[in-house]
Amino acid sequence: MVTPRITVNGKEAPIAPAAPHTTALDYLRERGLTGTKEGCAEGECGACSVLVARPGVNKPTDWVAVNACLVPVAALDGQEVVTSEGLATPGEAGQPSVLHPVQEEMAVRGGSQCGYCTPGFICSMAAEYYRPGRCPKAADGEVHDAAAHTGAGHTDAEHGPNGFDLHALSGNLCRCTGYRPIRDAAYAVGAPADDDVLAHRRELAPPAPAATEYTQDGSSFIRKETLAETLELLRDRPDAVVIAGSTDWGVEVNIRARRADCVVALDRLAELRELRVESGFIEIGAALTLTEIERRLDGGVPLLAELFPQFASRLIRNSATLGGNLGTGSPIGDSPPVLLALEASVVLAHADGEREVPLADYFTGYRQSVRRPGELIRAVRIPLPLARVTAFHKIAKRRFDDISSVAIAFALDIEDGIVRKARIGLGGVAATPIRAYATEAALEGKAWSAETAEAAARVLESEGTPMSDHRASAGYRSAMLGQSLLKLYAETPEAVSA
Amino acid sequence: MSNLSERPEKPVVGVPLPHESAALHVTGAALYTDDLVYRTKDVLHAYPVQVMKARGRITGLRTEAALAVPGVVRVLTGADVPGVNDAGMKHDEPLFPDEVMFHGHAVAWVIGETLEAARIGAAAVEVDLDELPSIITLGEAIEAESFHGARPVMATGDIEAGFADSAHVFDGEFQFADQEHFYLETHAALAYIDEAEQVFIQSSTQHPSETQEIVAHVLGLHSHEVTVQCLRMGGGFGGKEMQPHGFAAIAALGAKLTGRPVRVRLTRTQDLTMSGKRHGFHAAWRIGFDTEGRIQALDATLTADGGWSLDLSEPVTARALCHIDNTYWIPNARVAGRIAKTNKVSNTAFRGFGGPQGMLVIEDILGRCAPLLGLDPAELRKRNFYRPGLGQTTPYGQTVTQAERISAVWEQVEADGGLADRKREIAAFNAAHPHTKRGLAITGIKFGISFNLTAFNQAGALVLIYKDGSVLITHGGTEMGQGLHTKMLQVAATTLGIPLSKVRLAPTRTDKVPNTSATAASSGADLNGGAVKNACEQLRERLLQVAASQLGSNASDVRIVEGVARTLGSDQELAWDDLVRTAYFQRVQLSAAGYYRTEGLHWDAKTFRGSPFKYFSYGAAAAEVEVDGFTGAYRIRRVDIVHDVGDSLSPMIDIGQVEGGFVQGAGWLTLEDLRWDTGDGPNRGRLLTQAASTYKLPSFSEMPEEFNVSLMENATEEGAVYGSKAVGEPPLMLAFCVREALRQAAAAFGPSGVSVELGAPATPEAVFWAVQAARQSRAAGEASAADPEIAAGAPAGSSSGHALNGGSASGSAADGRTRAQTEALSGA
Q1: Is the peptide bond before B761 cis (omega within 30 degrees of 0)?
Q2: If we measure between CA atoms, which residue out of B606, B600, B613 comes closest to residue B452?
Q3: Contact with chain B for residue A490, Cβ under 8 A
Q4: Is B21 within 8 Å of A115 when comparing Cβ atoms?
Q5: pLDDT value of residue A97
Q6: Helix B355-373 vs helix B736-747: crossing angle, to nearest 10
Q7: Does domain B22-29+458-597 sit in CATH 3.30.365.10?
Q8: Which one of A273, A343, B619, B686 is most buried, by most CB atoms within 10 A?
Q9: Which residues make up the CATH 3.30.390.50 domain(s) of chain A?
Q10: Which pLDDT does position A494 carry in this prediction?
Q11: Do the Cβ atoms of B636 and B623 come closer than 8 Å?
C-alpha cells in the first residue's frame, strides 16, 4: 500500500499526519491554503468549495466542486484538488498573478464585498465554467449562445446566455452582495481558452481510485478495490462507518463531534457505479453521485429530473449518492418519496449474497431499516414502464438548498380519464418515509376529476402523523399534503388526463 | 457649497471602482483573523464550556477531569481574572458568570494544544447548577414585567385631541422576529504577549477601541498596554460592534496566563448560540386617521427583546422610537419604549440598529389599515409624507430637511418601474389565475444619520507621505466588506490630488488612531472620510507652500491635479514625487493626524428631544411578487429601487450596499426564522435553529429575478464629505415593499377591502395562512353580502371595535412556534 498522498494545485504531498477524521478543509488550511474558508462546517454555505478531478460524464475527467468541510482528506488519496489559490496564473517575476476568468469577472463586477465567501463561489463557478457543453465554441472561435446550440439549454432567471446554470451556485451563500453582481459575473464568463490547463486536463483520464488503508492513533480510513473485499471487511468490522459522499457523516463529525475507529469508503467501487437500463427496470448504482445520475439519465426519468434540482445543492449533489440517502434512513430525505412513488426497490449486497427489497418494505422505524450488519445497498431498481403523470412537490422555506418540511411524490397512471394506478410517496410526516396507501386507494378506479381530487386530498391530509418543529407547524404540513394533490390536479394537462 | 462637500477638479471620488481587496478576495489571498493562526507558531486553542440550561446558579465547577485530557493546557475560570470580570460596558455582562443566564452561556474556557484536545477537555468540565425559573418569550417578559434599562417616552402634540379629531381609529398588536447576523466569518481573535508583557490582539471587531478597553480592564492593564488590530472582517452587520470583546478578552487572558499565542474561533453553532442578534419586538398600537386618511395620532408601546444583559439595547430602542415616523408626519404621538429582560443571548446592534423595527411597525399599520380606509396602500402612504417647506418636525423635535426627496425618489420608482402599467397587468393576471396571484407594492424610507449619542460622532486618521511620494493612510474605521477602505483611498487621493495608485491603506489598529468609535451607524465614511480629508488637507496646505516657492507663485494659486502641481495661468509643472522630495529637504513635516467631528448635533435622552441626526437618507423601492395559492411559496419577480446617497463617493460600492442591504432586509422580513424552545421541557431556552441547515438566509433563489437599482442624481449633501451620504444601513429597510407586496398578493385571493395580517417573517407558511384567511373573508363576504358594512370591513369611527386586535398579529408564525424534536441533516 502506497502512503496516502494528495495533489493540491499541482503539488503532491502526504496526507499524514492528519487524523483520519480530518476534513479536506482543515487539511488545506493547515497547509497554509487559507483561501478555503469554514462558514458552517455542514455543507450549507459553500465557503469551503474546492475543485476535484473526477471521472467525467461527457469527457474523461470533470472538474467537480465539492464541500471540503464534509469530505475526509483521506478520501482524496491519489486525487487532484484545485483551490481558489490555484486558479490564478502566477505572474512573471515582479508581476502580479493573472486572474482566472471567473476571478476576473467576480473582481471587476463587484462580486465580492467582505470576500469571505468569495473563494468558495470562485470554485463553484469555475466548475460550471468547465462543464462540458456549457458554452460550445464554434469553429470561428466565437462563443455562442449555448441555448441556441444545444437546444436543451435555455435563458431564463436561472440560466445565463452563456449556458451558465445558476444552480451551480445553489450551495454557496453570500451575506453581503444580494447576489446580483455574482450572477452578472457568472453570466459573463466565456469559454475556456485553448491553452487553459484545467480545460485540457478534462481530456485526460481521471485519477485512478486508490486503495487506501490509512491509520493514525488507532483509527482507520479504508477504501478497498472491489465490492467483494469491502463486503469481507464489513463482515469482520460490523462497527465500521460506511460512507460514500460523506455528506451526512461529515456533518456528524463536525457538528456532533462523532469519531469512528473505522470508516470504509464505497464511492469509488466500480460495482456500485453502474447505471443500466434493462427491459423491465433501470438499475442505478448506489455510489453514483446525484449529479452523475442526473446527467446520465438526462431527463429519462421525469420524476427524478424534477427531484434533482430541488435536492440540496449542486455542491451536495456532486458528492451525495442515492445509496447514502437511503442508507441514513432519514424521514426527511428527498429521494425516498420519489423512489416510493416509482415503486423502486433496493438491491442489498452481503458477503453471503444479494437480495432485493421493495423500498416500501425497507424502512422500519426512525433511521431504521431492514438492512443487516455487514449489508450494503448496491443499487436501486426502478421498474419500467414509468407512470405517465408524475410530480414532486417539495415544501420548504427556501427554494434552493433547503430541507423539506414535507415532500410529496406522485406517480399516476390515468387512462381514459380513470386513475388506473396511483403511487404516492411522502416525506416529513412520519418517523420514516411512507406510502400514502389510503389516498392511493381513494384515487384508484375513480374518474380523474375535481371531485375525486378534492375527496382524495382530504384523505391525503390525514396520512401520517405530522408534527410541529422549527421548519413548519403540524397544521401546515397536513394542509400541504392535501394542497399538493389539488395542485397536481390543477396542473395536470387535459391531454394527459383524458 | 461647503468646504466639506466641495469636490476639486478631476476627483477620484465618484469613480466606480471595485473593492480595493477584490483581487485578494477572488484568489483567496485576503487574510482574516483566523487565517493568521496558520502563520503563527505554537498557537493554543480555546474552547468554551457552555451550560445547556436557560438559567441557574452555579454551585460547583470542577476542572480536574479536563486537565487530565492529553493536550489540555489550562482551564480559564473567573478566579483567573486579574482585573474586572466583565465583558461589557454596563457591568452587567460577567466574562465568567456565577449565574447561567441563557441556554449555552459559556462559564469557563479550556485551552488546549489542539482544538480537538480543548473540545474534549471542555466536555469534561463538570458544572453543578441550581436551576432557576427562566423567561424566554417577549410575552412571558411582558406578563412578568421583566424589564431592564431605560424606559423612554417620546411625545409630541396633544394625543387625546388627535384621537378626538380622528374619523377612524384602529388598534392592534404586532410581534415580529429577531434576526441572526450570519456574517460568514464567525467571531475570531488571536492574542500574543510581547517581551514587555504587552498584549497584541488580532480581532474580527467593528470596534477595536472598545475591544482594547475591555481587554485592558479584564487584564487589569492600561489601554496603552493593549493593541488591537483588525485586518478585515468576513462580514459584521453590527454583530461585531459589542460582541467580539469578550472573545478577545478570553484569548488575551489565555495568552497572558500561558505566555503563548491563544486563538478563539467560534464554530457556527457556538456563534449562533452565544452571540446576540437583532432585537425582536412587540408593538401595541392605536392610530387615528382623519376622513382623508391622514394620521392624526399615534399611541404605541414598543418592547424590545433585550436578552440577558443590556448590551446596546438602550440605544437600539431609542433609535426604534426615532424611526417609527419613517416618512410620515405624525402631529400627535406618544411612543413608549422598554426592554424586556429574557434568558436568551444579549441582543445587539444589527444593520439599522432599531430603526428597521420602528419603521416596520408603522409600515405594518399602514398596510393593514389601508383596505379599512378604502385606500390604495400607496395612496395612503403618499398622503402622509412629510411635506417640504412647512417646517414639519419629527416626534422627537428635529426638522425634516430635504423632505422633497421623499416624493422625488418615490415618483422616480413609479416612473422607472412603470408601476401604473404593471398594476393593470397584475390585475389582469390575477383575474385570469385562480391559483396564483401577484402583488406589487412600493414603500419608502427616511433614515437618520449619526450616532444618537453625540460623543460618538468623531473620528481620527493618520496620513504619512514618504520621501518617494508614496502615501500611507490609516483611519479609525474597520473594513467588513462595506467598501470603507476603498472610499478612504478615494478620499485621500482626491484631497491630495494624486492618482489612486500612490495611496496605500494600513490595517486598522488602536496604536495608530486612538479612541475611535465603532464602525457603525452607517457613519464610517462620513466620520473617517472627514478625518482622512482633514489630514490630507493639512499636508496639502504645506505642500502647496513648497510648490509655490518652487513655481514662483502664491500657494493660493497652486493646484495639484492627477499628481502634478501647477500654478493657475502658467505652464510650469512640478511632479508630485519631486514636490514631496523637495518638501523633505526643506524639513516640512510629511505626516498629519486628521480629526473630524460632526457639527450641529444635539440630543437630550431624558426628554427624548433634540436633533440627533446630521441629515436623513431617503429611498424608495417597489417589489413585485408571485404567490402560489396552494403552498404560500413565492418568488420576487422584480424590484426597482431609487436611493439617495448624496453624491456617491464610490458608485459601485454604494450600489452593492443598496442591493446587499435590500436582500438582507428581505431575508429578515420573509425567510429568516429564529426559533427558540419555549416549552417547559429540559431544553427550554435552547435555540432550535442553531446551524446553517436550520437557519436559512437568502440564497440565489431569493434574489429578485429582475433587480434595478439607481442612485438619486444631483443629490449633493452639504453636510458630509465630498457631498456624499451614508449608505450602510438605510437600504435594508427598502425591503418593506417585499412584505407589503406579499400582503397584497395574499389579499388578491379574497375580496377587496379586507385587511390582511401577515407574520414577520412572512415565510411560505405565514403567507399560506394569510391566503387562507383572505379566502375565508371571501366566504364570509359572500355569506353576509346583505350587510355592506361587514362585507366592506369598514369600522366607521369606532375607537377600538375592530377585529385587528382579536386576530393574532403574528398569528401564523405563532402557530409554528411549538417545540418539537429537531433534525439537522445536510440533506443527504
Answers
A1: yes
A2: B613
A3: yes
A4: yes
A5: 85
A6: 30
A7: yes
A8: B619
A9: 389-497
A10: 59
A11: yes
Whether residue A402 lies within 8 A of chain B, CB to CB, comes out as yes
Residue type, B593: A
Which has more confidence, A143 or A419? Answer: A419
Residue A311 Cα, gap to closest chain B Cα (Å): 7
Q: How far apart are CA B61 and CA B173, in angstroms?
A: 44
Cell of A275: 447505471
- Taking one residue from A and the other from B, the number of pairs with CB-CB distance under 8 angstroms is 307
B379 catalytic per annotation:
no
The confidence score (pLDDT) of residue A145 equals 47
DSSP string, A435-496: E-HHHHHHHTTSB-SHHHHHHHHHHHHTSS-----SS--HHHHHHHHHHHHHHHHHHS-HHH
Q: Residue A159 in contact with residue A153, Cβ under 8 Å?
A: yes
Residue B201: is its pLDDT beyond 60? Answer: yes
Task: Note whether A251 contacts B816, CB cutoff 8 Å.
Answer: no
- Mutate one of A116, A259, A310 to test the B interface: name it (highest B CB count within 10 A): A116
Domain range list for chain B: 22-29+458-597
pLDDT band for A94, please (50, 70, 90 cuts).
Answer: confident
CATH 3.30.465.10 intervals, chain A: 224-386
Task: Report whether pLDDT(A191) > 80.
Answer: yes
Give how far B761 is from chain A: nearest CA, Å: 11
B22 to A107: CB separation less than 8 angstroms, yes or no: yes
Please determine, looking at this structure, whether the domain spanning A5-201 carries the CATH number 3.40.47.10.
Answer: no
With contacts defined as CB-CB under 8 Å, which chain A residues touch B267?
Answer: 41
Q: Which residue in the list B20, B363, B479, B729 is annotated as catalytic? A: B729
Q: Where in chain A is CATH 3.10.20.30?
A: 5-201
Q: Please answer whether residues B218 and B207 qualify as being in contact, where contact means their C-beta atoms are separated by less than 8 angstroms.
A: no
Q: What's the rounded Cα separation, in Å, for the pair B713 and A77? A: 58
Partner-chain contact A316 B827, CB within 8 Å? yes
- A467 contacts B660? CB cut-off 8 A: no
Q: Could you tell me which residues come within 8 angstroms of residue B415 by beta carbon, excluding any fewer than 6 positions away?
A: none
- Which of B699, B729, B204 has its CA nearest to residue B480? B204
Whose cell is 454596563? That residue is: B90
Which residue, among A106, A114, A177, A292, would best test binding to B if mutated, counting the most B CBs under 10 Å from its CB? A114
Q: Contact B632/B767 with Cβ under 8 angstroms?
A: yes
- Run of H or E including B338: strand B332-341
Look at the domain A389-497 and name its fold: Enolase-like; domain 1 (3.30.390)
What's phi and psi for B258, nearest 5 deg?
-105, -20
What is the residue-wise DSSP string for B192-224?
EE-TTS-EEEEE--S-HHHHHHHHHHHHT--GG
By percentage, how much of chain B surpasses pLDDT 70? 94
Give bridge partners of residue B658 from the DSSP assignment: none
Nearest CA in chain B to A487: B630
